[in-house]
Design a protein that fits this description.
It contains eight helices and seven strands. The chain is α+β, with helices and mostly antiparallel strands. The strands form two sheets. The chain has a five-stranded mixed β-sheet. The chain has a two-stranded antiparallel sheet with strand order 6-7. It is elongated, with a radius of gyration of 21 Å.
Length: 255
């Protein structure tokens, strides 16, 4: 039995020295890529080839490679995280591509996510939005109640956990024509708003996080639903509706 033939691919990859320099696409050929390898493993092989040729390797972000951290985010053939669904780039396998195919690889495109180098972008804007209001107060007066002793309705607990699956990868921003972060912010607001522990700062939180989102330069919701489709964790547009309700109610109380 003959060995399984690997893929011969043409990679059209974005190269950019830093945020202040002008970027451009570079064409690289790669051969005999196993269909069982992941997309990042394919990039590892390409970089090894470039290093052996005395060329600078391509910068791309990664960490856990288990679909948990969201660091591996790439825009592949016009889709965040590539042609598969419900996965991050590190979980994308080369069997999703055809022999002889040209694959276009880009960084996230958003003013709020400036390019650091090549395919790596700065997503610290998400951290600042979280820091603006993403916390809960803790009563340390001596009357602290164990969280497990606080009853939570199952429906609310399930919805809060669904929202909490957001890994902050930024696929929602990358897929939105307006570069909106409302799915991300809606998820972070929802996970606290639905639980009793998050009620103390509930109104302050949503006002602060939305203000921070606007300050960071994210656009408005486009209502196209691309964010939900491309979210690797399948977070529902319902969190955006909840974000709007929470913000409207908090704004009325502040008026």
């Amino acid at each position: 039995m003959s060995a399984k033939k690997g893929l011969n691919l043409t990679l059209k990859i974005w190269r950019q020295k830093n945020n202040k320099s002008k970027g451009q696409f570079e064409i690289h050929k790669i051969s005999d890529v196993s269909t069982d390898s992941s997309f990042l493993e394919m990039l590892d092989i390409l970089n090894e080839n470039l290093i052996n040729q005395g060329k600078e390797p391509i910068a791309f972000d990664h960490d856990c490679r288990e679909g948990i951290c969201g660091m591996c985010s790439l825009y592949i053939n016009g889709r965040p995280h590539g042609p598969d669904t419900g996965i991050t780039t590190c979980q994308l396998h080369m069997r999703m591509f055809k022999d002889g195919e040209t694959i276009t690889i880009e960084p996230w495109r958003s003013a709020a996510f400036p390019v650091i180098k090549d395919l790596v972008v700065d997503r610290s804007a998400f951290d600042r939005v979280m820091a603006a209001g993403g916390f809960i107060s803790v009563n340390t007066s001596g009357n602290t109640t164990d969280a497990n002793n606080i009853l939570v309705e199952k429906e609310k607990a399930d919805k809060a956990m669904d929202a909490a699956t957001c890994i902050g990868c930024g696929a929602c921003v990358a897929s939105c024509k307006n570069g909106s972060a409302m799915l991300f912010v809606g998820a972070k607001v929802s996970q606290y708003a639905l639980l009793p522990q998050g009620q103390v700062e509930r109104k302050r939180r949503v006002l602060k996080m939305v203000a921070a989102m606007d300050e960071e330069g994210f656009g408005n919701c486009s209502n196209t639903g691309a964010c939900e489709v491309e979210c690797p964790k399948g977070i529902s547009l319902e969190v955006i509706a909840r974000l709007n309700r929470e913000y409207f109610g908090a704004s009325l109380d502040q008026a």
